[in-house]
Amino acid sequence: MVVIGGGLGGLSTGCYAQMNGYRTRILEMHELPGGCCTAWDRGEFTFDCCVSWLLGSGPGNEMHRIWLELGALQGKRMRNFDVFNVVRTRDGRAVYFYSDPDRLEAHLLDLAPEDARQIRQFCDGLRKFRLALARYPFLRPVGLMGRWERWRMLASFLPYFNVIRRSISVLMSDYSARFRSPLLREAFNFVLYEKHPNFPVLPTYFQLASHAGQSAGVPEGGSLGLARSIEQRYRRLGGEITYNAKVTEILVERDTAVGVRLSDGREVRADIVVAACDGRTTMMDLLKGRYLNDTYRRLYTRTLTEPGMVFPGYLTVFLGLRRPFPAGDPCTTYLLEEEFAARLTGIRHPSINVQFRSRHYPELSPAATTVVYVSYFCDIAPWRQLSTGPEQAPRLRRGEELHTLPVGRGREYQREKRRVRDAVIGFLDGHHPGLREAVAVRDVSTPLTQVRYTGNYDGTVLGWQPFVEGGETLEEEIRRNGPGLPGLANFYLSGVWATTGGLIRAAAAGRHVVQFVCRDDGRPFTAEVDDFAPPPTLITEPVGPDDRQFGVTS
């Protein structure tokens, strides 16, 4: 089996294939594993750009089992916070979204007693949803479930049917409009860091419920450390991974995938090919538009270009500070004045998410220093207009072809990056005096940076959005026909483009695709927890104001 892409979807696919007796080789364009789940060094600082929470970091759900099978968490501390996010409005008021329903209810009632009924209803729903999480299926794809297995799964959700039905049928924008308090009407749209116009209430319940159960923490060692742990598990299972290997074509003979061709002309032959890389690249470039049924052709020639179908990319600003800033919360979404937001090129919504990242990963920066991570949903178009260079530019170094090296994008592009960076620093200095003078290292990435490193369509990190035509059509297609393409044998899709969502779904996609491969080969699927290191330990850190002002004791 050849797997295209060494992100979490590709690494997961390789691990489960090795567990089931397949000899695999992963081909990764970059020099590192992880894809979007990555980090990089700037001097003494490590800038971690991915995991702000990891669904399944704690026990009591099927997500956690997948991470343990992949060796992702063993031997690590999982750091949890008692607040999922803080939303600060333009007038300086703050809403602390505690994951614990009791604390959240007390806090919200203190802020908006006029909304007591709506607040209690939301928190009651969150309490019920916490119980439902243990039933949520991740280990086995619905497309492989028999009729009775599906009925048993659905029956297990009956006690939670009403809360799930209500939360999935109402957009958060409509739900938040029910609050009388202008503060809550606005803040509820930003619980998940950014505004997601197409999201119903359900994802907010899912994240807060996972967080409350200590199953949405962050792993010691950060995002790249997480990817490295899975890479090591893959190698212990006997897998082979080749870096700086860019696939340019999937080889097909007699309507059967038989291998791949690399950018240097080499061919790697295989019995099975799995694409765990950018979806559009796979369909339109590597396969040259062949083997697309009506559904996939519509997805990749029309739906992909429609607004809101794919998650946007991010602009990120990283700052390494020479001293600690103890008042900085782990995670805050600031709602911005329109005039200031207009200075942030490509911004989708007038808000930025600010994380004092050293609270998440103190081991990734020197003692008595701070890393700040600022991000916003960003359109790629204005950055493309400013850029004069190619989106990727392979070059030879010591006889080896490299594909993700920096490219010259021109003075206007670099000037705009500096202008956004300086605007962000000025904003932060206004909230944390002395921050500007403490800056030792700074870095800015745009959606074009994401394209350079991963090749992802328009710099997206997560691929198809759920709850809209694109994601729902894809999931229905895979439920109905599996993760392959009609008329093409021995080929499968994996990773975020074969599902919707984040890291746990990418990891689950690897498990699922190997289950389909095993079915097609007539062999039983097997998976086991990695016992190479002891189970993870969970720690929780407090955030925010004193509980006593909300009448809560712990």
Molecular structure report:
There is one protein chain. The chain is of the alpha/beta class. Among the domains are: 2-40 and 59-73 and 219-308 and 463-521, FAD/NAD(P)-binding domain (3-Layer(bba) Sandwich); 100-190 and 197-204, no CATH class. It is 35% helix and 19% strand. The chain has 19 helices and 22 strands. The strands form six sheets. Strands 7-6-15-16-17-14-20 form a seven-stranded mixed beta sheet. The longest helix has 21 residues, at 411-431. It is globular. This is Amine oxidase. GO terms for molecular function: oxidoreductase activity. It holds the Pfam family Amino_oxidase. InterPro entries: Amino_oxidase, FAD/NAD-bd_sf.
Describe the structure concisely.
The protein is of the alpha/beta class and about 550 residues long.
Write the layout of secondary structure elements.
Blueprint lengths: L1 E3 L3 H12 L5 E3 L11 E4 L2 E4 L13 H8 L7 E5 L1 E6 L5 E5 L2 H11 L4 H17 L14 H10 L4 H9 L2 H5 L5 H6 L14 H11 L5 E2 L2 H15 L3 E3 L4 E7 L2 E7 L4 E3 L3 E3 L3 H8 L7 H8 L11 E9 L10 E4 L2 H4 L9 E6 L13 E9 L2 H6 L8 E3 L2 E3 L8 H21 L3 H4 E7 L1 H8 L14 H13 L9 E3 L9 H19 L15 E5 L13
Parallel strand pairs: 1-2, 1-13, 2-9, 5-22, 6-15, 13-21
Antiparallel strand pairs: 3-4, 5-8, 6-7, 10-11, 11-12, 14-17, 14-20, 15-16, 16-17, 18-19
Helix pairs in contact: 1-10, 1-19, 3-4, 4-9
